[in-house]
Amino acid sequence: MIPYPTDHDDPGAATAPGRARAAVDPVLRACLHTLPDAVRVVCAYQLGWGDRTGAPTGRGTGAGRAIGPALVLAAVRAVGGREEAALPAAAAVELVHQSTLLHAGVTGRAPGARRRPPTRAVFGTTGAGAAGDAMAALAVRLVAGRPGAVTLLCDRLIELCGARAARHAAGPAAALPGPGALFGLACALGGIHAGAPPRVTAALDTFGRAMGAATAPTPTPLTRLTPTAPPTPATRLTPVAPSALSTPSAPPTPPAPSAPAAGTRPPARARHTATAGPGSPLEQLVRVLPGPGGVAELVALYRLITRTEP
Fold first, then answer.
1. CA dihedral 31, 35, 37, 41 (to 10 degrees)
2. Rg of the chain on CA atoms, in Å
3. Nearest of 98, 212, 81 to residue 146 by alpha carbon
4. DSSP secondary structure string, 219-235?
5. Cα angle 224, 225, 227; round to 5
6. What is the DSSP string of 89-127?
7. How far is 178 from 125, CA to CA, in rounded Å?
């Protein structure tokens, strides 16, 4: 039996990103201090730690919910490893995420809006691009002690670059790449830093990618405009008999509820259940983990992020 948490909004899962943020922030700050001043200021601005001059903002971090680092640490615990050993990997995933956002902002397609001007608007295309490259390099440096992690991280960076290039070639109407590659990287790096065998790492990667696919917005299909019929010519009104006016008409029948159109998104609070069959990523992960309880935290995070059943 799959060890689902009893509460969909598991309190432990809800606080996991915040705990991961507190754990990886010291690692990220130490990394930034190794950068040249001009690049460090841009990176600190992107993370919400400094203003455009480099002065501390005093507002903590503006880098988001740290879902990637939370997945790394949850994967480590699922395999039975030590969380401290995976903190560099968790910070590396956050750096890859911020690098992706910076490069998406360079092309003018960064998702979401910020309360302050985006990094590209403050430092220009060149400054934001240089900071994105520096963050990607720092991520590789953080996992340099594990060759398998370096290979995986570099392969995933290349995949993300390819997705951005493909979208740029397709034009502004194309959908942004989903977070599946990043979530899969996070889960797999957690397995690698916990000393998991390749089959476990592969199952974690697949599970993370499935989580990213569940969070990707469903594109709305474009429909062809049907030309309207020409107006009907006016007809003469026929007099109505007085007896017909005295007969009450039947109340109108309410229309039957129609099924939602294909491709439309469910209401904001709706939850859906996806089949967890023998071939699902969750079932594959349960089979390879050392204990059935190890997947519970990952499932809770899955529910928290996607609002769906894995």
1. -50
2. 26
3. 81
4. PPPP-PPPPPPPPPPP-
5. 135
6. HHHHHHHHHHHHHHHHHHTT--SS--SS--HHHHHHHHH
7. 23
CA distance 207 to 305: 13
Indicate whether 113 pLDDT > 70.
Answer: no
Q: What percent of the chain shows pLDDT beyond 70?
A: 69
Q: 118 — phi, psi (to 5°)?
A: -65, 160
CA distance 289 to 103: 36
- In whole angstroms, what is the distance from residue 114 CA to residue 101 CA? 12
H/E segment holding residue 309: strand 308-309
Question: What is the DSSP annotation of 30-89?
Answer: HHHTTS-HHHHHHHHHHHTSB-TTS-B-SS---S---HHHHHHHHHHHHHT--GGGGHHH
Residue type, 301: L
Residue 236, exposed/middle/buried by CB under 10 A (0-12, 13-18, 19+)? exposed
User: Residue 310 gets which letter from DSSP?
Assistant: -
Tokens for 35?
Answer: 């950068």
Q: Which two tokens stand for residue 209?
A: 């990618």
| b/e sequence 45-81, b meaning 16+ C-beta within 10 Å | bbbbbbbeeeeeeeeebebbebbbbbbbbbbbbbbeb
CB 185 within 8 A of CB 96: yes
**Nearest CA-CA partner of 74 in 307, 254, 274, 304:** 304
pLDDT digits (tens, 9 = 90+) for 230-246: 444 544 444 445 444 34
Structural contact between residues 152 and 193, judged by C-beta atoms closer than 8 angstroms: no
Coil, strand or helix at 265: coil
Shortest CA distance to 101 belongs to which of 114, 83, 90, 87?
Answer: 114
Q: What is the pLDDT of residues 169-205, one digit of tens each?
A: 888 777 767 899 999 999 999 999 999 999 999 999 9
- Residue identified by tokens 């397709």 is 170
Give the C-alpha separation, 125 to 137, whole Å: 18
Give phi and psi for 40, each to the nearest 5. -60, -40
